[in-house]
Amino acid sequence: MKVAPDTWLPLLLFVIPANDLMHVAVFRRNDATWPPPAGALYLERAATGIVRRSVGKPLTVTAQNGVAHTLQVAATVHDPALAPAPRERTGSGYITPATLHRLGIQAPFDELEIVVADGPHTAATTDTRLIERRARALASGLAQRGATVEEIQIPPPHRHPHQSILDSMIGLLLGPRSSPSSSR
């Protein structure tokens, strides 16, 4: 994406069908309703600073074919699962397949996120063995239907992807301290 006359940054686009109820990869839509208008995107709120765009402003994006397109920033959203845009120097946006088609991109879907429960109408499980069994069974079923499954990733259940970083920072800030009287 173009953020200044001669400055380009990567833009990670999440393509979500207009009728997707988004029960797995959930982001907060603030005042926006899904889907965004055709030719528009929702911009992750942490990216507004590095992208230098706000709601209602155009954003120039270039697809792999080198053709530049303008997308309107329709709203900001918050995706707590993403690393902060300023640290990654990458913006994130959310579009529909129709907008992807407008950009001239024929991208295959390359990620499937699932939630595994112990049974019907139960909460997500923390049993990593059960999660792995179900993920491998799903991968096998997809492979039988002609899909290529290259990798299965199982993050620690109910943990934020950056939890270990936060734990380390908190430990450094609040770790054991010696009092002036105990060091004498």
Briefly characterize the structure.
The chain is an alpha/beta fold. The chain has helices at 48-51, 85-88, 97-102, 128-144, 163-174, and strands at 2-4, 7-8, 11-15, 40-44, 58-62, 68-77, 91-95.
Please report the number of helical segments.
5
The H/E string reads EEEEHEEHEHHH
Distance between the termini: 59 Å
- Give the total of beta strands: 7
Largest sheet: 5 strands, mixed
Helix-strand category: alpha/beta
Fraction of residues in helix: 10-25%
% residues in beta strands: 15-25%
Question: Order of strands in the sheet with the most strands?
Answer: 3-7-4-6-5
| Unreliable residue runs | none
Task: Kindly report the average pLDDT value.
Answer: 82
Radius of gyration: 21 Å
Question: What overall form do the CA principal axes indicate?
Answer: globular
List the keywords.
7 strands; 5-stranded mixed beta sheet; 19% strand; two-stranded antiparallel ribbon; alpha/beta; 5 helices; 184 residues
